[in-house]
Automatic annotation (TrEMBL):
Organism: Mytilus edulis
Any Pfam family hit: C1q
Span of domain C1q: 115-183
Domain of life of the native organism: Eukaryota
Keyword presence, Signal: yes
Gene3D superfamilies on file: 2.60.120.40
The keyword Signal appears for this protein: yes
Record protein name field: C1q domain-containing protein
InterPro entries on file: C1q_dom (IPR001073), Tumour_necrosis_fac-like_dom (IPR008983)
UniProt keyword annotations, A-Z: Signal
Signal peptide (residue range): 1-19
Length: 204
């Protein structure tokens, strides 16, 4: 815009106050009009490149905001501990051992879904530590921690003559978004809810 204004001011300086005919000026000053056209082309190219540059800056800003959002998500802590109630619990037909009494929950959006279903659905990808303790009257048996219905590790309840005994699992597991973690009965038919607990913590 400044280039074009300069060109028209230049024309005005050359054109006399009594003669303001464009064609006459063009005939008398052909070189000037060539310069004006060249300046106009330069301005057009400049405007086009400016638009392209502004678009690149906009895309770069969006990419930076996206990266900042991802970093913020990665830094958000995730932790959940839940246990059962003061009762003897018979495992449901789906084989999932549930822990419906929330002790603590940080950074988990769908807590109520987990408490009712027993399925922890990963919302933030990363490395997690999982701990499971089951107190049961069953003896010499096992239970399983599964990721997407595939066993990660098994817990064991040793032989015992007591009313109850317990076994504990501690493991690390790498989770992606929407991966599912659940505890399955194995050979456990009943368990005492209050002393049976599930904990998962995002460590990285």
């Amino acid at each position: 815009m400044h280039i074009r204004l300069f060109a028209f001011l230049l024309i005005s300086a050359i054109i006399s106050t009594n003669g303001n005919q464009t064609r006459e000026v063009e005939k008398k000053n052909p070189l000037l009009w060539i310069i004006i056209r060249q300046l106009d082309r330069i301005e057009t190219r400049f405007d086009t490149r400016k638009v392209e540059f502004d678009k690149k800056i906009e895309n770069l800003q969006k990419e930076i905001q996206k990266k900042q959002g991802e970093q913020s998500t990665q830094q958000t802590p995730v932790a959940l501990t839940s246990c059962g109630h003061h009762s003897h619990v018979t495992v449901n037909n789906d084989g999932i051992i549930r822990f419906p009494r929330k002790i603590i929950s940080v950074g988990v959006k769908h807590v109520s879904s987990y408490l009712s279903s027993g399925k922890f659905i990963c919302e933030q990808a990363g490395l997690y530590h999982v701990s499971v303790t089951i107190m049961t009257p069953n003896s010499h048996t096992n239970y399983e921690l599964k990721k997407n219905q595939v066993q990660i590790v098994a817990g064991y309840i040793p032989d015992h003559s007591k009313r109850f005994s317990s076994g504990t699992i501690n493991t690390a597991v790498d989770l992606n978004v929407n991966d599912q973690i659940a505890v399955y009965r194995g050979g456990v038919n009943k368990y005492y809810g209050y002393y049976s607990c599930f904990t998962i913590v995002k460590v990285n």
